[in-house]
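Incident log, structure service

09:12 report received: a user says their structure output differs between two submissions of the same chain.
09:20 pulled the input from the user's history:
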Amino acid sequence: MRISAKGEYAAKAVLYLSLKYPQMATIHEIAESHSIPVKYLEHILLTLKRAGFLESRRGARGGYLLSRSPDQIFVGDVLKAVDGKFSQASCIEVSLREHYSCPESNSCGLKQLWQDVQGAVEKILFQTSFDEVRKRTLAGMVNQSHYRLYEI
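09:34 re-ran on a clean worker, output below:
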């Protein structure tokens, strides 16, 4: 499975908003915090808004916020919203190249392994909420700060 830059940026934006939840954040805050080009982020946030993950408010105090709590938004759903179907190994992906056909497609052990890996990854992504990712991030921040306190 491959996660595109668009998918990664979408996940980072939702994580940022999860850390701020239930508060709002501006597009510039999000872009700056993850070094995402603002124009590119605009398209991603619009896609996430259309998919029902975000709300936006206009005006001087406007910005973006999650449309529901982080424990109700799953990483796999966000990735799917911006990237569509997950990319798979070429031997299990429906090929756009009609002339390609694996001669061992039904009996190849690798194909079966790649399908198992794909299923396992998707299971993890669709069972992991942004609340869990938020908690991991906060724990990492605490550990990093703790480590810095003891640096000499």
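09:41 both user submissions now match this output. Likely a transient worker issue. Closing.
09:42 reviewer note: Residues 140 and 146 are 10 Å apart (CA to CA). The domain at 5-149 is CATH 1.10.10.10 (Arc Repressor Mutant, subunit A).
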